[in-house]
Amino acid sequence: MPEGHSVHRIARQFAKNFVGRPVGASSPQGRFAEGAAMLSSREMLEARAVGKQMFLRFDGDVWLRVHLGMYGAWDFAGVIDADATIAAANGRMGQTNQRGTVLDEPILDAAGENSLTSIGAPRRARVHVRMSEQTTGLPDEDEQWPPPVVGQVRLRLLTEETCADLRGPTACELQSPDEVVASIAKLGPDPLVDDLAEGEERFVATVRRKPTPIGLLLMDQAVVSGIGNVYRAELLFRARLNPHTPGRDVPEETVRSLWHDWTRLLEIGVQTGQMMTMDDLDPDAYRRAMAHRDDRHWVYHRAGLPCRVCGTAIVVEEAASRKLYWCPNCQA
């Protein structure tokens, strides 16, 4: 499932390539035909991400809410004017790790998580994309435009230069301004949206009154926005926190530390396009981590492998129908 960093990257891509332009809309699949007709020819005015959900505002007070869910993704084609804050992910401005090491050559992940062309569920790009920090001009004359529809496209948004295809979302619906406010009100704080201090207090107050295990609370989008299975496992390990500890029993300073760590990891995820959760890597180790998921995380997807810290076998178990990875020694 795409986690919060991916959705913020998508929103920034829409802000750079669609906001301020009239947008054509269609539903090649047919399942969103009426909604697409309502959107078509309207100017996009705003692109906003909150946690795992994105809200696109069009003139006439019409909003589009999209939740990618487990399998959804946006595929971009045509002229891509990459946001400077995420350009590192496509290699055009180099890539910078947590220690400030600049890597001049792009690092590509064969699984597709680092792909600007398919942002969301990891998959290989199906469409050709020209990318640069500052790209001008229409697609090449020998390229078909608009690009052919591939697969089950729920919604296609199209400007003169850029195409965005939505596949497999959990939610794709039009909302009124009041409905958008109500949708966002149901979500927990997002460090990239809410005031950090206020968000911290909301998060701490909610966690500290809940008997629910912290491993479940971090996945509850009403408690905190954007954290998915990968970030959940990694945040808990980094805090050396047993995932079964009731929220109300987690020390307040630990809860605050979780919020601060989530803020930091989310910013890194938006900048790099990767859920990078290991610190203090030298350039070679950082390059390996950016290219291979197995070198990127402390415990996630490492069931049965030795803990990178203590050597104990990493445990995997089911928690609310999702796999939870943790070290029974470091997180005892």
Automatic annotation (TrEMBL):
GO terms for molecular function: class I DNA-(apurinic or apyrimidinic site) endonuclease activity; damaged DNA binding; oxidized pyrimidine nucleobase lesion DNA N-glycosylase activity; zinc ion binding. The keyword DNA damage applies. Residues 298-332 form the FPG-type domain. One of its GO terms (biological process) is base-excision repair. It holds the Pfam family Fapy_DNA_glyco. Residues 2-94 form the Formamidopyrimidine-DNA glycosylase catalytic domain. InterPro entries: FPG_cat, FPG_N, H2TH_FPG, Ribosomal_uS13-like_H2TH, Znf_DNA_glyclase/AP_lyase, Znf_FPG/IleRS. Its cofactor is Zn(2+). SUPFAM superfamilies: Glucocorticoid receptor-like (DNA-binding domain), N-terminal domain of MutM-like DNA repair proteins, S13-like H2TH domain. Keywords: DNA damage, DNA repair, DNA-binding, Glycosidase, Hydrolase, Lyase, Metal-binding, Multifunctional enzyme, Zinc, Zinc-finger. It is an enzyme of class 4 (lyase). SMART domains: Fapy_DNA_glyco, H2TH. The keyword DNA damage applies. Belongs to the FPG family. This is DNA-(apurinic or apyrimidinic site) lyase. It comes from Microbacterium schleiferi. The lineage of its organism: Bacteria, Bacillati, Actinomycetota, Actinomycetes, Micrococcales.
